[in-house]
Amino acid sequence: MSTKPAAKTMAKAAGLDPRTSGLDAFRRLLREGAAVHDARSTAILTSDDPEHVHQARVAVRRMRSLVRGFSDMLTRKTTERLTAMLVDRFRLLGPLRDADVRALALAGTEDENRASSEAAARRETLRGQLTAGKPLSLRIEIEALLHDPSCAVRGPRRQRLAAAPVGVPASRALQTAWTELLAFGPDLHALSPGERHDFRKRAKDLRYLSEFFAPLFDHDPKKMLKRISKIQDALGVVNDIDNMRAAQATQNATGLPPDADSIEKKQLKTAQKAWSRLRDANPWWCRPPWRG
User: Fold this and answer.
1) Does a structural domain hold residue 151?
2) Helix or strand or coil: residue 47?
3) To 10 degrees, what angle do helices 50-69 and 167-182 make?
4) Cβ contacts of residue 289 below 8 Å, gap of 6+?
């Protein structure tokens, strides 16, 4: 997985600075994320490169982290509509992404050709879904939903958060993501596969929000981000193996890599070590950027 902080790149492209309001920053970042998703979705129609599917999903996941983090600023209806819109896009890409991961994991095994054929079939199915009915681009859908701030942000509390410098709602979102992560406890081995998957999603929230807003703060989140990335990458491998095990129970599903158990054990150990160190870290966002 690439370690390039693409969320930070999105923040730069959005032109954020400490004086940007919370609502303006939110809209700009969603706009940048949707543009990445739409470009990758267009590329899927003509390219077999699995990276386009992966990056389209990552763009949606970043936007979901942003919506989750800034939900206190939005009306419940707006949050629900944005979330549903993003979940639909994420799930649309999911079957092909899972098939691509299986094909890569089973390369060089007796299941290689079968896994590659499954991925190719999924790719054609997705292309049909992307062209059927000529759906609006994600960027246009988001713009249409947020075009009237008086509907998306209603009530004095939400309006204050929306009008405040972005560092205010950003520090709130980061603290919430951090406490939700801590609530899973110190031992990742004690979590069920489903709980580990939820833990990884919350770790992604903290990582993406950190990359979005780190340039606005005085302190460097580099050490925290490095540990979060290790956890995310390691548990991603574990989750892929869990998904392949679940797929074995379905008809005509491909198998597992022969060393799946040892890979899982090693990756869980890596994730646990990084998590133990991360829990001792001091949050870097506790001094908001009162500048400008």
Assistant:
1) yes
2) coil
3) 100
4) 18, 165, 167, 216, 217, 218
Report the CATH number that the domain containing residue 261 is assigned in CATH. 1.40.20.10
Distance between CA atoms of 44 and 292, rounded to whole angstroms? 43
Q: Which residues contact 48 (CB under 8 A, 6 or more apart)?
A: 120, 123
Q: Which two tokens stand for residue 109?
A: 């095994």
Residues sharing a CB contact under 8 Å with residue 72, sequence separation 6 or more, in sequence order = 158, 161, 169, 172
Average pLDDT over residues 53-65: 96
pLDDT tens digits, one per residue of 84-96: 999 999 999 999 9
- Backbone φ and ψ for 187, nearest 5 degrees, come out as -110, 105
Q: What is the pTM of this model?
A: 0.86
Judge whether 287 lies within some domain.
Answer: no
- DSSP alpha helices (H): ranges in the chain? 6-14, 22-44, 50-69, 76-105, 112-131, 138-146, 149-152, 156-163, 167-182, 193-213, 222-248, 260-279
- Band (pLDDT 50/70/90 cuts) for residue 9 is confident
